[in-house]
Structure formats: C-alpha cells, structure tokens
Task: structure prediction
Amino acid sequence: MDMTIPSELLEIKRTARRFVDTELVPLEAEIERTGSVPREVRKPLMRKYAQLGLRGITMPEAYGGAGLGYLAFCLLGEAEARALDAFQFIFRGGDPLLASAGSEMLKQKYLVPLIRGDMEHCVALTEPNAGSDAGNLQTKATRVSEGFLLNGAKHFISNAEYADFAVLFAVTDPKAGSGRGITAFVVDMKSPGLQLGQRQRMMGRQGWHQSEIFLQDCFVPNDHVIGEVDQGFELAKRFLASTRIVTVGANCIGVAEQCLELSLAYAQQRQTFGKPIIKHQAVQFMLADMATELHTARLLVYDAAVTVDRGESPMPKASMVKLYTSEMVGRAADRAVQIHGGMGYCRDLPIERIYRDARVWRIVDGASEIQRQMIGGWLDRHGCSQFIVS
Ligand SMILES: Cc1cc2nc3c(=O)[nH]c(=O)nc-3n(C[C@H](O)[C@H](O)[C@H](O)COP(=O)(O)OP(=O)(O)OC[C@H]3O[C@@H](n4cnc5c(N)ncnc54)[C@H](O)[C@@H]3O)c2cc1C
Result:
C-alpha cells in the first residue's frame, strides 16, 4: 500500500492554507466580536477563492469546477477547517445534487454562478419534526399547472439568510411512505411565498448562521425539479454520503490537527514543577492519544475518499468516517482544553471556541446514533467480509 499523497494535491492544501491565513484569519477577531461576516466582503472573498480554482473543486470542468476527485477535496477540506466556520459560505462552492442530476438549464442558471462565487446557496432538508428521521418530511409540494406549490417549514438551515437559492426537499407523493415520494427542488430564496424565519442562536460556530424557512403556497416551476419527481431522497442519500467524507471527515481532521499543534507547542513551553508540562507523563499521554486518533481518522477518511474516486459505493465507510471523526475531534478539543489548563477555558486563546464549535459534529448531518444504526444495518444486510482480511 502506497499512502504517499501526490505533490499536486498537497499543493492544493498549501494554496488553501495560504488563502485562509492571509485573507480570512485577519477578519476573525471582528467576526468573533460581531457574530457576522460583513456582507460587503462575502462576494469578493468567494470570487477570490474561485479564481484560485478552489471553489467547486469536484464540480465538472464544463461548469467552472476543477473536476478533481475526493482525495483532493479532502486535502482542501483539512485546510479550510483552519478558518472559522463563519467562512463556510466561501468553501461551499458546489452542489453534488445539481451537478449530478440537475438539468442543463439549472446548471447554467445556478451551478455556474455558485462555482464562480456570484451566488450562495443552502440545503434545506431538516424540519422541526424531521431531523434524524428525514424520510418523514412534512413539507408538501402539490402539483399545479406548470409546477408545484410548496407548503411547510424548514429549520436549522445553514446560510439560508444569505442564500440566493435553496436545494429544498418536499413530499410530492404523501401516500408513498417514509423516505419515498420526496422531490428535490431548486427554490429561489426571493420566491413569493417563501419567508425567512428567525436566526436560530447556537452554542458555537459564530457567524455561520442557521435559520427557519416558511413556505406558504410558494410556486416552483416544473423545470426547477432536480432529477426525477419522487426520487429526491434517493438522490440525496446517494450523494450526501460521499460529501460527508469531506464536509465532516476532512473538516474534523483539520480541526484536530490544529488542536494537536497548539497543544504540543503549549506543552513544550508551559512550565510546572520546574519543567515543561510535556515532561509529565499524563500530558504526554494526552498528546499521544490525540496524535494516534488523528492518524487513525486520516487513514479512514483517505480510504473512504479513494473508494469514492474508484467509483465504488461509499457505504458503510462514509458512515464510519462521520461517526469516528466527529467523536475523535470532540476528544481532541477536550484534551486541548485540559492541556492548556485555565488558558484553555479562557477566551484569549482559540481553544475554548474550537471546543464549542467541535460539539456540533456529533449531531449534524446524521447524528452518531444514526451512523451506528446505518453501519449496523449494512453489516446485517451485507455481512462483514469487507472488514476481514483472509
Ligand atoms: C449548526 C447546525 C447546522 C445545521 N445545518 C443544516 C442544514 O444546512 N440543512 C439541513 O437540512 N439541516 C441542518 N441541520 C440539522 C441537522 O442535520 C439535524 O439537527 C440532525 O440531523 C439531527 O436532527 P434533530 O436535530 O431533529 O435531532 P433528532 O432527530 O430529534 O434526534 C435527537 C436525538 O435522538 C437520537 N435519535 C433519533 N432517532 C434515533 C434512532 N432511531 N435511534 C437512536 N437514536 C436516535 C439522535 O441521534 C439524537 O441524539 C443543522 C443543525 C445544526 C445544529
């Protein structure tokens, strides 16, 4: 097994890291203070990132993407994780559903400007009564002449406040049963009948805002359906599993890298009882566990990414990535606080923010319990031969 990462992929990570350090880090103190990225810098930052060829890195070249694979996407994700989550809008420069199943018209109208940095979007699946149980959506799309009328409510939708359009899921066949009869739509956020609700205040991730969306007789034309009517949930399951390897897995690796670097540097310079704290075995053990788990997570993520790049199904590896990396980063952040002592709890250092921000990963995009359920169900259906080397 050759685990060497091609130098051109490492260069992608370095380019993204330079962008984060020079363009984004200088804005962080202001965002932490105000809780928002100033509106006037959003488009210039997105366009700058697009010009580096980093927005929409896995999106097809014909639409302005870089057409690269998931291993490249992962390295990029690790570098992006060094920035505040408030900057997620810069990094979400593509949409796997639109790219894979959108019509030519939808790609030209929405995907191209999204990749170019001229538009922002959001993905609206979750509802007040359908989170983990996402197959049980209540938002209805009723057929009318030349399109659909949407009625219902979404919540916790990241970036809804700034989005130009939403990739939104609604039930088109209420009789089909859980997880069926759901359609994916592109909905213009300025559509009559769509109303943005409250910004929902969160524990962490300052500046990456979540909001409610209310739909009352909101008209969406037929040509704004992504893929086939009633097949939206299948589409989402097929593509979102792969995306999760990056949006969660690689992101958690980037954050855990930062925890390890900051903690090692602190442990080597902070003195107690006449020596640097790294000379105390208890502190060494925490660092050892951080490094070991980070490396384990990286192998899991890269293996899942290469599986996608080979065109194979990402399941159950994508669920393993989501489960392990989200729990790993929580332990890494917790150890980082512990190693920094009182300074780890103090707002003068970034550690306390990283600790708060990391908590969300075990919940979003399919909580740990749901991932365990998916892995267990997969083993029940397929057996364990994929995980036994004989
Ligand atoms: C910061 C943030 C950003 C988000 N961004 C978006 C977004 O952009 N778009 C979007 O659509 N959604 C978004 N979400 C929603 C997110 O994906 C959901 O919160 C998540 O899927 C969990 O759903 P829930 O909150 O309804 O929890 P619930 O489904 O109510 O679950 C509550 C608890 O019960 C457990 N549980 C549920 N069912 C089972 C079961 N069968 N077996 C065992 N345990 C179970 C869960 O694991 C969890 O621990 C976001 C959420 C947050 C917090």
